[in-house]
Please model this.
Amino acid sequence: MNRILAGAACALLTGLLLAAPRSGSAQLLEQTIELSPGWNAIFVRLDPEVSDIETVFADLPVRSVWRFIPDDRGAEFVTDPAEGLQNLEGWFGWFPEPRPEAFLSNLFTISANTAYLVELEGTETHEITISGRPDFRSLRWRSNGYTLTGLPVSTDMPPTFSEFFEFSGAHQAQPIYTLGSDGRWSTVSPASTGIDGNRSYWIFTKGNSSYQGATELILDQGEALEYARTTDSLQIVLRNRTDMAGSFLIERLNGDSLPMRYEIEDPETGEFAWPTLQQTLVQQVDANSEVFLRLGVRRSEMTADRMEQAFSITDEHGGRILIYASADTLQPFVAPTRSTRGSGTPPALAGLWSAAVQIDAVSEAQLAGTEPTPVGQPFEQRFLIHVDAGGQARLLKDVILMWEEGTLAPSDENPDFQEVETPGRYVLITNKQLIPLYAGSVNRDGQSVGQRVSTVAYDFEGEYIEMDGAFGPGNRSTVTLTMEPDFPTNPFRHKYHPDHDNLDAQFINFQQEAFQVIRELSLEFAVDDPLGLDPPGWGSTLLGGTFEEALTGLHKNTIFVSGSFRMRRISNVPVLNQ
Model:
């Protein structure tokens, strides 16, 4: 295992920075764009913290800002903005006050991954700095037409257009236009023109294309690595579109130092490990191949309710992609302390837990043995445990996840509009009589229904039973289940058998014919992962340890059982039935 950990820990420092950290707002990046007198075709890469176009271009001698939003029929190449864009379909513009045409403005915000044309007055060069977070989106090429877009490249060592499109048949030898300060589009020489990552270009695509550059990034979902609710890990795919072996450099840019891990496998033994994701990580890749990289967040190491991180992914061909990652703690943040036996449970572990208990040793009752001996074939049982915000653990038999609709109220600013007064929320129901009060949490066959989770591994009176001890790493939780002779699921009782129905010969009066069965269950929580995998969710959404049970009443001698358990949090709702 040390061999693969050492190999994966190799790091390569780089100075390829498109966006520098902004002081006082660690999760944001900055993109600085130079504006020359006259016309500029720029490309905004970040999702602006302040998107109001008037604020972005405040105090600058701007005549107009334009964005092209084509209709469903597709875009046609527009030649020269100097000839005027106002009456051309698909163009939206903004004119600052007090320009006389300001009342014609129909463009009001700046968006990420979007091209803009900016006309600047005067003779001096100016800069705009956009603070925001990465918002990853794949390039969307218009078939057999022109696309106005920027390209995901480094600002320090960008490739030429020929180098960027070397492995794309749909773009090789196709026309590319750049905007001059005079408002005229002119063709570029692909072999000698370097790509400016802050600029946008009209680029022609022959046929269909999904080309993203030498490196293609595919996310599990959405436009960022958003670790929502109980999600511990997400996978990204990095694809090498070239015919040469290479590598990808994943680098933390700034942010709150989100505690993250990445999964690696020893190809010889098949063993997995989750080492800490350091400042930089290099992933080797073969020609025309891909790397599957699973990244996890370690919530037990988070130091705030919400933490964020920006990453860049670069290759040897001058390509550079920005992505954003974020995670919330499942409950309000509690300063980390090392648990000790009986110390109580931090609220951060509140919620519903599903445990897989594996029995691998049982004592030999016929010999009055007290030490469990290994079984020929281990078997599993499911345990359901709910922990409230105060740390009290309860053993459940079944539970239903439902949804409580939010409420609306007239807006204070405009009573004609409704705004959210109370947001909707998930609820956990063990009392079946409460089900009609809530809506379903999933849609099944066109119907809104709840999600039911249950177990047949044990039974008891009521909806739940409180456990003793403390829940969580380093602690021990116990519970005793007593099955009286007349309990419906007592293994000795048979409702219709005269010898085991607990009734006299006339089937009228109670006569004990079944035995009382007592189960004493114990969960010993490990501080560290007993399997040695140390996955990212350990200590927050994933727990494990050893299991012990003593059964009295099944045999004249007590039966002792032992094994292990591994449990995962499947909901972070801290209360039941409300």
About this structure: The CA atoms of residues 225 and 325 lie 4 Å apart. The mean pLDDT is 87. Helices lie at 2-8, 53-56, 161-164. The first helix runs from residue 2 to 8.
